[in-house]
Amino acid sequence: MSATAQQAEQTAIDPALYETILELIRRTSAILPDDVVRAVTAAEASEEKGSNAEVALNIIGCNIGLAKEKSAPLCQDTGTILFYIHTPVGYDQLTLEEAATEAVREATRKGYLRQNSVDSLTGKNSGDNTGPGSPVFHFHQWRKPHVEIKVMLKGGGCENMNAQYSLPHPQLGGRDLAGVENAILDCVLQAQGQGCGPGILGVCIGGDRGSGYAVAKEQLLRLLDEPSEDPVLAELENRVVAKANQSGIGPMGFGGKTTLLACKIGKANRLPASFFVSIAYMCWAYRRRGVEIDAASGRAAAWLY
Amino acid sequence: MANYKLTTPLDEATVRSLNVGDTVSITGRLYTGRDAMHHRIHSGTKPPVDLAGQIIYHCGPVMVKDGDRWVCNAAGPTTSSREEPYQWEVMRDYGIRGVIGKGGMGPKTLEGCAKYGAVYMHAIGGAAQVCAQWIKRVDGVDWMDLGSPEAIWHLWVEDFMVIVTMDAHGKSLHKDVFESSREKLLALKA
Questions:
Q1: What is the pTM of this model?
Q2: Whether residue A151 is found in the same domain as residue A296
Q3: B38 counts as catalytic
Q4: Which of A21, A142, B18, B138 could be a cystine partner for A103, CB 3.0 to 4.6 Å?
Q5: What is the pLDDT of residue B62?
Q6: How are the residues of chain A apportioned to helix, strand and coil, as percentages rounded to the nearest 5?
Q7: Contact, A151 vs A29, CB < 8 A?
Q8: How close, in Å, is residue B34 to chain A by CA atoms?
Q9: Domain limits for position A217
């Protein structure tokens, strides 16, 4: 048992669970998932030789390799730490939350995560990524016997490019698929290179202003080559990517062919009076990983992505 | 588009000879500075280092202490547009010749570049490990009370590669790409 696990045990935290989550955070911060690496590699091959777009994607490719090799953060902005957790019925979620919070503290000490949690009134950095609202936990129960934890690190640069539209909109259109499509592409236009493109969009049609963004972010848990099960949404996803990639914004906004790597669209019911389109812009440093955990032992049973 | 190797501090003539699209490899000092640092300077506090001829790097690095030495674990650029209200003043008052960041900046900065002789250079956003590899030493830190990501880190870099995207001739790649992409997307509107 490592020194940190012993320390965790003394503070009544399940040491196996703690070690599993710490490893999950390390992997998420340092190792880009295979589906994203494949998309970045394909994008580099499609850009004009010698263009600034190609240079940018080449450096991004080198960066992906270096981070993995050094087990160091892909991007210095390790972002909002978002946990999406499923637990069996009757499982103690509070113990899990404590173990995950302690793992976040240790991951910050080890430099897998930057000190990224700031008091919104005083500006004081808590120094360990914990505090009101950080990290973010989304707990769900399910009827399976194991625990599943997915974690996403979403940097501030791309988070600042998220947008929410209320339809009808005077320039973008009405409460139909055309209005939705125009709203999504307006978000891409406004973001330019500021969200560290080529980007990946998570979109929610409907919901309220809060749940719309939550569902939009959840779309980012899908694999890049996994289209929506709804054929209408799947077609819209493809159309958005095709049009965005004709915009010429390109990687980093340098100009070029790859503005988006993917667009993932979900939906939620809305009020008759409301029609929101919520868009979560994710940077190319699309850090999401997951683990299936044996509920009894707290050990990893399978790594996801 | 040309390739240049430059050493800091930069002089005005060199900076004015650069054009949008040029690739520049920088060797020498970079000072990090982002939101809280710019706000403090704007509020009237003098910077703790001489910025004449220097480059400000919009970056909040991951720093880890190894004994009494700081080691840079990750150090890519942060979004520059947040410094748009302040950057031109730092050019005017303290003589910086370059800014490195990502995402580009707006009209005030572009005007500042032309008026005071400075350029905006774009690093590759998210490429924190490649950038950290170009950082050979951390020579000091000021204003640590702002928190580690907001402090002024004194970095020593070798062949730190950036692309000029706003020059001292009034040209901005960001403005041009915005305009052309707006027209293209308008033509594709559903």
A1: 0.93
A2: yes
A3: yes
A4: A21
A5: 87
A6: 40, 25, 40
A7: no
A8: 13
A9: 157-282
- The answer to whether B125 and A193 are in contact (CB under 8 A) is yes
Predicted confidence (pLDDT) per residue in B146-170, tens digit: 998 999 999 999 999 999 999 999 9
Does A173 lie in the same domain as A139?
A: no
Say whether residue B186 is in contact with chain A using an 8 A CB cutoff. Answer: no
Asked if the ipTM is above 0.85, the reply is yes
Report the residue of A25, A60, A77 to disrupt the B interface, i.e. the one with the largest count of B CBs within 10 Å: A77
* Contacts B121 to A, Cβ<8 Å: none
| CA distances (Å), origin B87, targets A184, B81, B95 | 31, 10, 11
Q: Given pLDDT bands bounded at 50, 70 and 90, which one contains residue A4?
A: low
Q: Which residue has the tokens 């095709």?
A: A242
Which CATH number describes the domain made up of B3-187? 3.20.130.10
Q: Are A226 and A249 in contact (CB under 8 A)?
A: no
Per-residue pLDDT, averaged over A199-206, amounts to 98
Same domain, A164 and A298: no
Number of domains within chain A? 2
Q: Is A103 within a domain? A: yes
Chain B residues with CB-CB distance to A125 below 8 A: 147-149
